[in-house]
Amino acid sequence: MTDSRYLKRTILKEQIESSHLGESRTLRIYLPPGYNEVLSYPVVYCQDGEEFFNFGRIATYANQLILDENIEPFIIVGVEVNTKIRTQEYAPFGDRFEKYTTCFAEEIIPYIEQKYPVRRTPDQRILAGDSLGGSVSIHLSLLYPELFQQVISLSGAYYKQSQDIIAQAQNLTDLNVYMIVGLQETDFESDTGIYDFVQLNRETRDLLQERGATVQYSEKDGKHLWGFWQKELPAALKYFLPEI
């Protein structure tokens, strides 16, 4: 990761005014090497956008994949969140959950698709998130299956309310989920309690598969930290993005 080519990244900041949230929201947009407005690109939408760029180093990894591993160039959109109200927006029991998911689908997606040459089919949009960001990405795919069918879930926080919603789904055959969880995440303390994320992810994998979803699932040594997730990002991206 010391190659200077990986560090020459084009990252733009945008502000979108959300009528659903009643506030502006910052977006970070990564444009790939050789970006050309006349082309079209797959797009990765990240919850916790600032963390994906700063701690996940997703733009640096993207450059590496595109320049050295012949992965098709893609655009990344990081949606920033106020950590103080993150649970309220990302968890289905949160009082801002409906506003956030509606903003994501009905305001952020159209804004990006009007301004950037991203592809507009569900097989070319990838949602990515860690912890509650992983679970809200699944919820978005359930709420808007016409928009989202591909999800990267890094140690998803699949609390009972999320599992109950997934259990109510009838047919998830179009959904494709890349799930990974760390084996040292068995007693993680969150703002809502202490959870065994390994067990929660195993149960959620089974719920998804029982409803026809495709699930690429793995457990590895790791804690509920970006130090673990960062190293897993390239494989997760390669799972969905083709070589050229």
TrEMBL record:
<dbReference type="InterPro" id="IPR050583">
    <property type="entry name" value="Mycobacterial_A85_antigen"/>
</dbReference>
<dbReference type="Pfam" id="PF00756">
    <property type="entry name" value="Esterase"/>
</dbReference>
<protein>
    <recommendedName>
        <fullName>Endo-1,4-beta-xylanase</fullName>
    </recommendedName>
</protein>
<dbReference type="InterPro" id="IPR000801">
    <property type="entry name" value="Esterase-like"/>
</dbReference>
<dbReference type="InterPro" id="IPR029058">
    <property type="entry name" value="AB_hydrolase_fold"/>
</dbReference>
